[in-house]
Structure formats: structure tokens, C-alpha cells
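Subject: Sanity check before I submit

Could someone independently write out the C-alpha cells for this chain? I want to compare against mine line by line before I put it in a report. The sequence has 60 residues.
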Amino acid sequence: MPEKKVACPTCGKKVVWSPENPWRPFCSERCKMIDLGEWAAGKFKIPMEESDGLDETLGE
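---
Independent answer below. Compare away.
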């Protein structure tokens, strides 16, 4: 079975997607930490729908 390769989200280097790669999908711990730092700095955000701030299911 051929190895599946993916691009590292940080640097783009092709890496093998397997349990033997402890940093997958990243190529290294360095790239993993760079990505984590960017999330912590607010450079990445998960889009959300705007709401009135109240969850309708809480009142039930």
C-alpha cells in the first residue's frame, strides 16, 4: 500500500501521514508550535454565525 503524503500546513513540505509521525499533519515539532502560536495570537479564527448571545436551549 503506498504511503499517503500531505503538505505540512505551516511550511508546505510533503510528509507521510502515518502513526509513526508524531507531529502529523505537520513535518516537525517546530512547525506544530508555529501553528499553535498563530492560533494563540488570533491569526486564525473559526467562523461563527452572529447571535443575540442567548442559547435558546438553555431556557428549556
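---
OP: Matches mine. For the report I'm noting this point. The domain at 5-40 is CATH 3.30.50.10 (Erythroid Transcription Factor GATA-1; Chain A).
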